[in-house]
Amino acid sequence: MNGIVHPCCHPEDRPAPKNEDEMMVLIFEYIDRLFSIIRPRRLLYMAIDGVAPRAKMNQQRSRRFRGSKESADKRKEIADVRERLEREGIPLPPPKADSEHFDNNCITPGTPFMAKLADSLRYYIHNRLNNDPAWSKIQIILSDANAPGEGEHKIMDYIRRQRASPGHDPNTVHCLCGADADLIMLGLATHEPNFIIIREEFVPNQQRPCELCGQYGHGLKDCQGLARDEIAPDQADPVSKETNFIFLRLSILREYLERELFMPNLPFKFDLERAIDDWVFMCFFVGNDFLPHLPSLEIREGAIDRLIRLYKDAVYKTHGYLTQDGHVN
């Protein structure tokens, strides 16, 4: 859910919502669109990030402090540009009240905003269950910020518990929404055959509105504070387009990994599931949210390809895989 909340609360490609109520409406509309694309048949699990694991707390703390300082610096820069343009007599939109400034650090467990978000989502779920036939046929689970752990980890724990239950259907299709690369690793680690990740399509060099006047085609430092009837063609709002989504099918990724990791003439039978576990383990060395990358390994410099070559040599020499049942062998 945090991958939905952040772009709705402080979007980069359009003016920010005026208040928290507008943010909640945007979140509801985003979920509605995802629901209509994915069309779940059995279960919808909405998981908000709770208290982060200890391994990630230091990183999150430093990111929060850095974000707070950058936000204060940006407000000061906007005030300086506004003061300069007002001295020149250039018309500008009225300044935002302090109450309208949204601090991104509010999107963290224990804040009033997160409590309001959880209450709003409960209202939204009850409303859809009563008024939308597609919702009334499925089970809905909401895990708010009071439950510890990151959202994707809570969902993965649920999938593992379901997989271990006696009545589990092995043909169940899972669809996880999020832009983090670690979702790929988590999905592969479940060994579910039908796992799909949906995320927003990344559009490079996307135009952003000016933080002062809200127009397009220029940045804050180049703002001229033009009135609406004087806007140049390249500064008008760009044609509004709905965000496109892309699907990543882990079943196809597994086929590619099988081609990459297959080792002929092994003294034992090649096991794709064990090899995928080893590949996920090796990817830890190029860094993730909990561990920094090793100084000698950079993804941009072909670190993963190098690790695969070394891995194959190691398997031939040691006559075994690197991991077993989630532990280093």
From TrEMBL:
One GO biological process term: nuclear-transcribed mRNA catabolic process
MF GO annotations: 5'-3' RNA exonuclease activity; RNA binding
Region (Disordered): 56-75
Span of domain Xrn1 N-terminal: 1-201
GO cellular component term, pick one: nucleus
Claim: Nucleus is one of the keywords in the record: no
Domain (Xrn1 helical) ranges: 269-329
Record keywords: Exonuclease, Hydrolase, Nuclease
Pfam families: XRN_M, XRN_N
Entry annotated with the keyword Hydrolase: yes
PANTHER family named in the record: 5'-3' EXORIBONUCLEASE 2 (PTHR12341:SF41), 5'->3' EXORIBONUCLEASE (PTHR12341)
Protein name: 5'-3' exoribonuclease 2
Protein's organism: Plectus sambesii
Organism taxonomic ancestry: Eukaryota, Metazoa, Ecdysozoa, Nematoda, Chromadorea
